[in-house]
Amino acid sequence: MNEYKLFLNGKWVESAAGETFEDTNPATLEPIGVFQKASLEDVKSAVDSSEEAFYSWSRTPAPQRGKILFRAARLLEERKEELARLMTVENGKILQEARGDVFKRP
User: Fold this and answer.
1) What does the angle CA 94 – CA 12 – CA 18 come to, to the nearest 5 degrees?
2) Which of 9, 10, 16, 71 is an S-S bond match for 49, by CB 3.0 to 4.6 Å?
3) How many whole angstroms separate alpha carbon 22 and alpha carbon 8?
């Protein structure tokens, strides 16, 4: 079974508390994987790193921020099917609806 880590401050890490939980597909009850259970310390780390990132991001020129955001949108569009299928397995949402959640065209 796959084991997944937390993404904090640009790195994949284990929970500071070392706790995990198993998640299952709600439609089939088959195991999806083992996930890190974020602790209060992990949440504080995430908030602290986001505050640091905001400082840097807010000083990045708007044209450069735009390029980054457009690249993120392209990546979502390219991986739309994969991400929609992951959402369906994880929370039982129908595939068509999950596709719309991943990427909606204006």
Assistant:
1) 95
2) 9
3) 20
